[in-house]
Structure prediction request, 149 residues.
Amino acid sequence: MAVIERHRPAKEPPAQLPLFELMEGRYEVVVTNLHLSAENIWRLTNRGTVVEQVIEELKNDFAAAAIRTNSFWANDALFLTGLIATNLLNGIRRLGLPKALATARLKRLKLLLLQLPANVIRRSRQLWIKIKWDHPLRFVFYRAMAALR
Prediction:
């Protein structure tokens, strides 16, 4: 068990009873079988929170936790497709979106960028996406597409 103390006092009283009533500040308790110092255990667990967010987004936004068919291989293919979609979405976030949208969830990005009213036109053997000229996110979409090229 590793107990990590943060020297910042809580801003408002928590709804749950505190673990240590006599001490001021904030504490984190991590139960582990690693034989490391408390500081190194804290660093390892906080580094993993990003992975937990990705797993949670994969489960909820991409519905990767559901078993959709009776075939193992079909479920495996669906799960791998969700992983590829997650990686593509992270690439779009990092390369093509402004900082305000870099941490947006899939549902928000879908609402703002993927459900745009647009026309798809084939011209000169290429597909062109034409978005209405006064749409507020038009240039954000075009920048994201250009960054993916």
